[in-house]
Specification:
heterotrimer; A alpha+beta (171); B alpha+beta (792); C alpha+beta (290); A: 171 residues; 5-stranded mixed β-sheet; 5 strands; 31% helix; globular; B: Aldehyde Oxidoreductase, domain 4; Aldehyde Oxidoreductase, domain 3; Aldehyde Oxidoreductase, domain 4; 29 strands
């Protein structure tokens, strides 16, 4: 068993875990953050996507012990929390506007992939959007309304001249 | 064609469920933890068929953290076999293999441990002594009397063999100028949600109650668990507030649920089983149809299609499951959208040593549409006639509704020609043809695919008594309860789980429309199964019709009560009153406000009409429209409402590489009145994505040793954002006369026609070489090989 | 799908990593984890110890010498994709990197890991084999260098020393005039390729074409070079290219599986090799025609 402290959504989370535990399982079972989902546990579906230093990665393809020292963002770190619970970030709100989801299972991973894209590319083409989410499989939506959501979010973020994408809310 | 103006219905509204999902606050089954919960891992057998001689779990049981190992023998002595709607009592199915292994991957025993990882460690220590047996994989071979029966007690591999003759088939064939025959095969695939199936059970001996949380989409789920576990129906409490991560039919998990329910009772603590992906693919028993169609079609020189003979042979896998009934539901649209006068239908379902099938989106309609649309293309090819023109000639016309098809169903309404005209205009069909020709001139293979098909909707169990005459059921109901509280707010209850269909939005929108209240102010709750009224879960594309119907009727009952209270209070007849946004207005201008009405109903019994109950609550339990009779002479009304879709796409591929590239995709969709536009369009786009997968990529393929080759997502390929193109939806609306707003179902839209359309496009591309692809999926390797064979 | 139990260590130096490897027969190097961790989850790989080399500083270095670019084993694929050194001096690798996995796997996967893992369809391995890159392994305190064109001998099988740790790849810098071509075909974009081809044509003013490198991947048990030296000294017209590739492909055996027949792989590998060579030639056509 290893003592592990991970920085998740800006906060340190400590736990005792076996080396064999993936980052995905640590997030869910030790940190208690259920928003990151297991779809395949072999790195294909993307439902487990989190951000490491702002870049999208598959948390089922990392061990928790590997992630020590990294800056991890999960879906719980997007949008409002604490006193601002209930507020949606710009990308989250865009997904609601275009109904870029149905069952919601792939959605956290999809939104984080969008966050990663829009943090480096503020005006993506449709092809660039599709490339950015090509590692996230959705079985409900056929991707059309997801692509619409991300393009809408890009447009809206482009209209803001202050907040960075991950801070932006509708406050 | 007029469209009614609604205040909330059919207007762009954000689905209310989306908020929690974008925040990662959905509650999926793996998110439910209970104190002292134990975890289950099943042990799979690798034999396609074997006799189990013994199981030695002693080393596993000795491991720390391992609590129990359950075998099939223990289960068979303690639980009833899982329900089977056919008359095949000797095809018995338990959650674990009993005496025999019948497919590679079948669960032989189950480890219960303190964590999933520990359970998996323990699996490796279990020794199963099994003797391999002969096995059978091919459906045609399974029909032979010499084939090794998967269930020796049943005596053969035949689960179902039903022949239907509707109308004067022989006469129509004699009178027709031509006939042609062909075969097509729908390869084994499924809708494979990203979330696997999971179930958590907790037995409370003090309350004598079994609580169940599951990622479930299944009618009669609680009933079947109760039956198997020999528990009273009111000892099972299913929690409907579990969010289901996609289902599209397949999340039935009845064997998992009975297993976990049994273990929970035995051990007295909560037990949870979440399939991992390998278990899901191989032994989740959620495969879809694997069906071979042999079709002979009779037609005249002018293209009129007179009659059709269809033999459908389905490979059900090792147990009966729901597979055989997926041969029955397509009878509801057995002639597609065409005026075909007579049909002979031979439905066969056989057992083989493959994974078990489950209900898949459309319940057999998508494969059948693929067969029918291929038939139309073949007729056009034979006659040298344009495929569109052939269809337009044979399509049922708008003045022919309600249209009675030979198998006894009335199609309620439609205007198929108008939808097609709209699509051709929106797609600029001449430009598409020109683009196809330009691509061909540039050395590419290019083809246009079209498909016209129906989505029977509303759900009805009449295919059960049709296929199994000893099954005398006709009830297929849905329910809704509505309450206006003492502060005047509406809460409605729905009695089912949802897997992304937006039922909370559906009900709040419908109730908002009826009560003229902003849907955002209406709360929807999901009580558990004991607190719920009967329902049949979101299958058969039924909820817009049934849940929408029950919610609307419950709302109307409330409105009627409000009007009666107002009439009594104002001292006027009801027909002198007008309901307006929750207030009631008298002809003389007096206004009885909502708040006053609530006050009376909840607190001033003395001011209510004589005999009226206090409070403002109503409920409705609704039977499916037109569902009031059993089959007579092999004919019956199946589903009440028929949506229509027309697909048009342009595909091209390099003749050597063979990878299809979809250039444009337009679909015309008529599902009557749309309750929430974004929910319906999302269904259609998603259905097309599923259809592209079935046509080009997805197959549960087996090797000659009965081993599943596509055990993970590395080999079972599902369309990503690169494989699903931008899609244009063109809407049309012919309301249904059977429903309160004219709404029809749309939960299967896109999926029912996309495989046919994509297959047609590829076949159009290679038609010049005389190639026909007759099996789905059509892989790029097969495309390239077929072209090379013709051109070398 | 939970892995078997194993220990985990983070050595600070390469030699410490090698010492750990030598001390346990069942120890494995963990680099990016994108190929190894799925195997752990499926229990296809059952190590007793994982040695995480991600924090050994020299393994993430790019070193430019007069003739070569050295890429540390732990350089992430995404970093290599963005590297100006790679774009300028190893243009064939730059082209191939866009085909490796998906953006999230490139964020973690490493250049060295891809070569050590030796999947028959690995794009980086194909480029390394095609260009005859040098693969350096540290074993028992000394460096052993392998030629990538002989390194891969089977599916996931190389001649790497079992107790060695891959430390860097070294690619010869492309000459000033150099054309490249990379093609890959898969059922879905970024799936394991059904066939892939990499080509580089090196040119020197005054000498003309100095060397032609061609390799195919995904169709056999490992990426392999094809000998098209006969094209040197020819005007590299389409017919000559096609003839040379067909001749070189004659003895190539291709594999068959659910996704593609052997005949398909052979046909498409041939076609992609031709296209890769044509692309490479077109890139330097100005110089060729002088």
């Amino acid at each position: 068993m290893n003592d592990v402290t991970l920085t998740i959504n800006g906060k340190p989370v400590s736990g005792v875990t076996e080396p064999r535990v993936t980052l995905l399982d640590f997030l869910r079972d030790v940190a208690g953050l259920k928003g990151t989902h297991a779809g395949c546990e072999h790195g294909v579906c993307g439902a487990c996507t989190v951000l490491i230093d702002g870049t999208a990665v598959r948390s089922c393809l990392m061990l928790a012990v590997q992630a020590e020292g990294e800056d991890i963002t999960t879906i719980e770190g997007i949008g409002g929390s604490g006193a601002r619970a209930g507020e949606l970030g710009v990308i989250q709100d865009a997904f609601c506007e275009t109904h870029g989801l149905q069952c919601g299972y792939c959605t956290p991973g999809m939104i984080l992939a969008a966050e990663a894209l829009l943090s480096v590319n503020t005006d993506p083409t449709e092809h660039e959007v599709r490339e950015a989410i090509s590692g996230n499989i959705c079985r409900c939506t056929g991707y059309v309304q997801i692509v619409d959501a991300i393009l809408l979010a890009a447009k809206r973020l482009g209209q803001r001249n202050d907040a960075a994408p991950s801070d932006a809310t509708l406050a | 064609m007029t469209e009614q103006k609604y205040k909330f219905l059919s207007t762009p509204r954000r689905p209310v469920e989306d908020r929690r999902f974008v925040a990662g606050r959905g509650k999926f089954i793996a998110d439910f933890d209970r104190p002292n919960m134990l975890h289950v891992a099943p042990l799979a057998s690798h034999h396609a068929a074997a006799v189990i001689n013994g199981i030695d779990a002693s080393a596993a049981l000795a491991m720390p953290g391992v609590v129990d190992v359950i075998t099939g023998a223990e289960l068979a002595a303690a639980v009833q076999p899982l329900m089977n709607g056919l008359n095949t009592p000797n095809v018995r199915r338990f959650p674990l293999a009993v005496d025999r292994v019948r497919y590679a991957g079948e669960w032989v025993c189950a480890v219960v441990a303190e964590s999933r990882a520990l359970a998996e460690d323990a699996l490796e220590k279990i020794i199963v002594d099994a003797t391999p047996q002969p096995f059978i994989l091919d459906a045609e071979a399974a029909l032979l009397e010499t084939s090794a029966p998967v269930h020796p007690e049943h005596g053969s591999n035949l689960l179902l063999d039903r022949k239907f003759v509707w109308g004067p088939v022989d006469d129509d064939f004699d009178a027709a100028a031509h006939s042609l025959s062909f075969s097509v095969t729908w390869g084994r695939n499924s809708t494979v949600p990203i979330e696997t199936f999971g179930v958590l059970a907790e037995w409370n001996g003090w309350d004598q109650m079994l609580d169940i949380w599951a990622s479930i989409q299944m009618p009669k789920y609680a009933d079947q668990i109760a039956r198997s576990l020999d528990l009273p129906g009111n000892a099972i409490r299913v929690h409907y507030d579990v969010d289901v991560g996609g289902s599209y039919g397949v999340k039935r998990g009845i064997k998992h649920s009975v297993l976990v329910g049994y273990i929970a009772r035995k051990l007295g603590c909560p037990v949870r089983l979440i399939e991992d992906r390998l278990e899901n693919m191989r032994a989740g028993d959620a495969h879809g149809p694997e069906r071979k169609f042999d079709i002979t079609i009779a037609f005249d020189q002018d293209g009129t299609v007179r009659s059709m003979k269809m033999r459908a042979l389905d490979n059900a896998g090792a147990y009966a499951g729901r597979a055989p009934f997926q041969l029955g539901k397509p009878i509801s649209a057995i002639v597609g959208p065409y005026q075909i006068n007579s049909v002979a239908y031979h439905a066969l379902s056989v057992t083989t040593n493959k994974t078990v099938q489950e209900a898949v989106r459309g319940f057999g309609q998508a494969p059948t549409n693929y067969a029918i649309e291929t038939a139309m293309d073949r007729v056009a090819e034979y006659l040298g006639m344009d495929r569109l023109a052939l269809r337009q000639k044979n399509l049922i016309r708008k003045d022919q509704f309600p249209y009675l098809i030979p198998s006894g169903s009335y199609y309620d309404s439609g205007d198929y020609h108008a939808v097609i005209d709209k699509v051709l205009a929106a797609a600029d069909y001449p430009a598409m043809l020109a683009e196809r020709d330009r691509l061909r001139d540039a050395g590419m293979m290019a083809g246009i695919g079209i498909a016209a098909c129906l989505e029977p909707s509303g759900g009805n169990s009449s295919f059960e008594p049709l296929l199994n005459q000893s099954n005398q059921t006709s009830t297929w109901m849905e329910s809704c309860q509505v309450n206006i509280d003492a502060l005047g707010k509406l809460t409605a209850r729905i009695h089912t789980t949802s897997s992304g269909q937006g039922h909370e939005t559906l009900v709040s929108t419908v109730l908002g429309e009826v009560m003229q209240i902003d849907p955002e102010l209406i709360r929807i709750t999901r009580p558990n199964s004991l607190e719920s009224l009967p329902g049949n879960s979101p299958v058969g594309s039924r909820m817009a019709i049934m849940l929408g119907g029950a919610a609307a009727r419950a709302g109307e009952k409330l409105k009627a009560k409000i009007m009666a209270i107002a009439a009594h209070r104002l001292g006027v007849a009801i027909d002198q009153l007008r309901y307006e946004g929750g207030d009631v207005l008298a002809h003389d201008g007096r206004r009885f406000t909502w708040d006053e009405m609530v006050e009376l109903a909840h607190r001033q019994y003395h001011n209510l009409p004589d005999g009226m109950d206090p409070g403002l609550a109503s409920f409705d339990i609704m039977q499916v429209p037109t569902g009031d009779a059993l089959p007579v002479d092999d004919k019956v009304q199946m589903y009440p409402c028929y949506s229509f879709e027309f697909h048009l796409l342009l595909v091209s591929f390099d003749p050597i590489i063979g990878r299809p590239d979809i250039h444009s995709y337009v679909i015309g969709h008529d599902c009557g009145t749309v309750i929430n536009p974004a929910i319906v369009s999302g269904m259609t786009y998603g259905g097309i994505a599923h259809g592209i997968g079935a046509a080009l990529f997805e197959e549960f393929a087996y090797d000659t040793n009965g081993q599943l080759l596509t055990q993970s997502f590395l080999d079972y390929l599902m369309p990503s954002s690169h494989e699903v193109p931008a899609i244009q939806i063109v809407k049309h609306c012919t309301p249904s006369p059977h429903t309160v707003f004219g709404q029809k179902g749309s939960g299967e839209s896109g999926y029912l026609g996309a495989p046919a359309a994509v297959s047609a496009a590829i076949n159009d591309a290679v038609s010049g070489l005389g190639i026909h692809f007759e099996k789905l999926p059509i892989r790029m390797s097969a495309i390239s090989d077929a072209i090379a064979a013709k051109t070398s | 799908m939970k892995p078997v139990r194993f220990d985990y260590k983070r050595p600070a130096t390469i030699d410490e990593a090698c010492g750990l490897l030598a001390g346990d027969d069942n120890a494995r190097i963990l680099a990016g984890g994108q190929s190894l961790i799925p195997m752990l989850s499926m229990r296809l790989s059952r190590p007793s110890l994982l040695i995480d080399i991600a924090h050994i500083p020299e393994l993430t270095a790019f070193v430019e010498t007069e003739t070569h670019i050295e890429i540390g084993a732990m350089v992430r694929q995404a970093v290599a994709q963005k590297s100006e050194l790679v774009k300028t001096h190893i243009p064939l690798l730059a082209k191939a990197l866009g085909y490796v996995g998906h953006p999230p796997t490139r964020a973690r996967g490493t250049v060295g890991g891809s070569v050590a893992h030796a999947d028959p369809s690995a794009e980086i391995a194909l480029v390394a084999a095609t260009l005859g890159a040098e693969i350096t392994y540290r074993v028992d305190g000394t460096d052993e260098i392998f030629d990538a064109s002989d390194f891969f001998i089977g599916p996931m099988l190389t001649i790497a020393p079992p107790t060695g740790c891959l430390t860097r790849l070294s690619f010869a810098k492309a000459p000033a005039v150099c054309g490249t071509g990379f093609h890959e075909v898969a059922p879905r974009k970024s799936d394991y390729a059904l066939a892939s081809a990499a080509a580089q044509i090196n040119f020197a003013a005054g000498s003309g074409v100095t060397s032609i490198h061609l390799g195919i991947g995904s169709v056999g048990d490992f990426p392999e070079r094809l000998d098209v030296d006969q094209l040197c000294g020819t005007p590299l017209d389409d017919a000559a290219i096609a003839d040379a590739v067909h001749a070189a492909m004659q003895m190539v055996e291709t594999v068959e599986d659910l996704h593609a027949t052997a005949a398909y792989r052979k046909r498409v590998a041939t076609e992609l090799a031709i296209r890769a060579l044509r692309d490479a030639r077109d890139e330097i056509s100005k110089d060729l025609n002088q």
